[in-house]
Fold Bis(5'-nucleosyl)-tetraphosphatase [asymmetrical].
Amino acid sequence: MAVRACGLIIYRRLQSAPSSKVADGIEYLLLQTSYGTHHWTPPQGHVDPGEDDLQTAFRETQEEAGLQASQLTLIEGYKKELHYPVRGKPKTVIYWLAEVKDCNTAVKLSEEHQAFRWLKLEDACKFAEYEDMQATL
């Protein structure tokens, strides 16, 4: 049976950004795992029994990054599904897009992650490494 996980791609708008280039003022949150290859990923995790996908995404974001649902604005119409093998088993990860309401909100990592970074899109794609995650960003 396929493993199912859900998460949020979180971004913030920097207040000091010039209005001429909106993309210059946007940064994406990536977390570095404290296990395995120490890869970088948005907050995400496995769906618990009785939980719907979006509940999982918000719960995992709170657990892994310390960000509450009330601190985020979910962007309507954005939902991406990734499919890839993990240890020989198929995995599905569903991501929604969310903006942090206050760009100065603190990130509080769980033990699952050893570092986090707010990155411009180009840098986030470099850190993400996997092509499907780069395309999703």
Summary: The domain at 3-14+24-135 is CATH 3.90.79.10 (Nucleoside Triphosphate Pyrophosphohydrolase).
